[in-house]
Amino acid sequence: ACLLILCLPACSSQIPEGAPKSAIDQSDEEGFKRQRLRMVEQQIKARGIESEAVLQAMSKVPRHRFVPAPQASFAYEDHPLPIGHGQTISQPLIVAYMTEAAEITANDKVLEIGTGSGYQAAILGEVAKVVYTIEIIPELAASATQILSELGYKNVHVKTGDGYLGWPEHAPFDGIVVTAAPDQIPQALVDQLAIDGKMVIPVGTTSQQMVIVTKTREGVVQRKTIPVRFVPMVSKPGASK
């Protein structure tokens, strides 16, 4: 199916703090569920996402729990949202796209770089056996850990660290999903990808493209797909990339 993506992830536009809230009360979980199912039908499925596992995950995970309270009423709309510390939670379609592109199965071990709010990690936790996710900002790692724990994701493990280094203790990974953009693909992540595994990563500075990296016994294959805009991937001072 043809996948058309017009709205880019992690863009700089933000919903004003004083913006009017939707008609659905933030404590109305049934209302949020209706919004979530409508999001999946209109924003995700209708625009080319076909994986049943991904669609089910997007239908289940409560995105409103992963955004600041003032943004909760916008959680199921078709755009990214600010989560503090200069970071964003990506547009729902991009989360679904990256998860599907990684071709993750129920027995897979997955690495995520850039935990952020924890939402992408939760989606990955629904489709994979185990997820290891790294966040360089301690406050975001702590809040994501708390939310994931409250929602019962025992198969998602969060640590504060430098994503450029990956998580070698648990390598190789069947899939790697990177939610921030380096200027080039970190070699450490390629090294930690399993044979036949896929890494989905936005690459670039002023101009970014999503790249799907497939590791084979013969070598590494890169395929550029869609234009995107993510926050930059940062490293700890003095760290080697």
What does this structure look like?
This protein is an alpha/beta fold. It has 6 helices and 9 strands; from the N terminus they run H-H-E-E-H-E-H-E-H-E-E-H-E-E-E. The strands form 2 sheets. It has a 7-stranded mixed sheet. A two-stranded antiparallel ribbon has the order 1-2. A hairpin with a 2-residue loop joins strand 8 and strand 9. Helix 1 packs antiparallel against helix 2. The protein is globular and about 50 Å long. The N terminus is likely disordered.
Q: Secondary-structure map with pairings?
A:
Blueprint: H1 29-44, H2 52-60, E1 81-84, E2 87-89, H3 92-101, E3 109-113, H4 119-127, E4 130-135, H5 138-150, E5 156-160, E6 173-178, H6 187-191, E7 193-204, E8 208-216, E9 219-228
Helix content: 25-40%
Strands, count: 9
Shape: globular
Largest sheet: 7 strands, mixed
Q: What are the segments in which pLDDT stays under 50 over at least 5 consecutive residues?
A: 1-24
Q: Cα distance, first to last residue?
A: 36 Å
The averaged pLDDT comes out at 89
Mind telling me the C-alpha Rg? Answer: 17 Å
Tell me the number of helical segments per DSSP (H or I, 4 or more residues long): 6
SSE pattern: HHEEHEHEHEEHEEE
Spatially, the strands of the biggest sheet line up as 5-4-3-6-7-8-9
Given helix and strand content, the structural type is alpha/beta
Which strand-content bin applies to the residues?
15-25%
